[in-house]
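Listing 4. Sequential folding, example run.
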Amino acid sequence: MADRSRPLPTGRQYMLRRPGPSGDVTATVTELAASLRSLRVGGAALVQEYPDDLPPPGGAGIVLVPWPNRVAGARWVLDGEEQLLDATEPSTGNASHGLLRNTGYAVGELSDAAVTLTASVFPQHGYPFHLGTSVRYELTDDGLVVTHTLVNHSGSPAPVAVGAHPYLRVGDVPVEELSVTVSGETYLEVDDVQIPVRAEAASGTPKDLRHGVRVGDVRLDTAYTDLQEIDGAYRHRLHAPDGQSTELWTDLAFGYLHVYTKAGFPGPDGPALAIALEPMTAPANALNSGAGLVRLDPGATWSASWGLRRKASGS
């Protein structure tokens, strides 16, 4: 139980609510890392919630900017000069999940059903660029739309990418009983420190998620690409046995999806299995490989969106 006389580890909590045809749509977004801490439609959870006396476990719901996932050895090269980042993943020596995961965001706009949070990436060792960033969470009739916006305040083009780290649910159904469907035809094979070494066809392998795989039967820490476009978006799902599902959709800027199964996620009934479906505009080590990176010109603005929807049986 959190001590209510002290600030929460994730700072201020922004609680959103909107009436919907299936009941109220509610969400909680935190000051720390603009984490999506809860999302419910008609009382049914779409994301894995975590206790308010903890920081985001396993990066739950946080924003990943100006890169998602990892940078190999916390090193990359800019215009022929090596850049040295902080090695924030000590077990591998990598730099992990960008520069704002421990940053408190300020409020740009706030209403009953939406919040826009802002934070700056300042020039620093390993990343000599000044970015303005924002993330807007806006409730819909059946879920949530999230829009990330980056502005380059630097005097030279900045390499940028963005991602998010939601762990998904379908109501109260145990995660191991759900099936996960990801439209990726290709997955990224990695080395022993989770850095991509080559792309492999998913077809015919245990990593093929295109037709649905029971979550309890797999352990994944895998990025997918060559995603299938459906009605102008990329769409991935968790399905419950009764036909209910949670859909993660992204616009076409999010050409990668990382799937991560985590044992021991803290929950109201004790540690449990959780699954993250992480939309990413670039894969791990993009600052070195260039894959998926956007070169944002001085003064330029770039936005990308994704969202979550509760889907009824048969829809």
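-- end of first protein; second protein begins --
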Amino acid sequence: MSVTFSAEGAVGFITLDNPPANSYDLEVMTAFSNAVDEAIASDARAVIVRSASEKFFCGGADVKKFLDGDVEANMAMIRVSQAAFSRMAAAPQVFIAHINGHAMGGGLEIALACDLRYASEGRYRMGTPEVTLGLLPGNGGTQRLTRLIGPSRAMELLITGRTFGPEEALQWGLVSGLCDMAAVREQAERLAAGPAQAIAAIKRCVHEGAQLPLDEGLALEAELIERLFRSRDAAEGLQAFVEKRSPEFA
């Protein structure tokens, strides 16, 4: 399988394994979409999106398939990927990308759709080079990249198509740290043991709130924190703080 889902306890893994570059077409993106659905339906509370390749995280869309397909066929792949990415944002699980190799075009967009991104150190490149093909990043890249690193820097990357390394990605806040898979898994395990309701509510505030006027975003935040005040996890977290012990969330 080109994309698979597996789980070990409360940590899940979506693994990209389509040699040589983990490039995707409609079939591969459909497999990714199915893996996302498996992850959401599972008992995993944190999901790491990773690559089986040591050189590529994901090389993006298979350009030859674009040439072979008509506009509708190409748009079918776009619709599948955008829908899968939206479900990731709406899911209660934390999705974490571990970028360990080249992440180009749609490959970078997979990482952008995750809630958190970490990258291995190395000399590989990332970027959105679609403009050099007369296209634009159609899997959310123009929107998520801009929101993550700001319009000025995003515009420069998008309209030039230039690539960048993991150190620049860290400097810009595109990734949260440079670390290996073991460290990413440790972070995933910590998050999986955390307060699931609070994490899901924070995701909703950030993802939905970004689309709302400020007053509506604040109203959503107030609604969700009221629910959390009534939750077992909040009762446990507050009690543990007073008692100076580590909380044990459900």
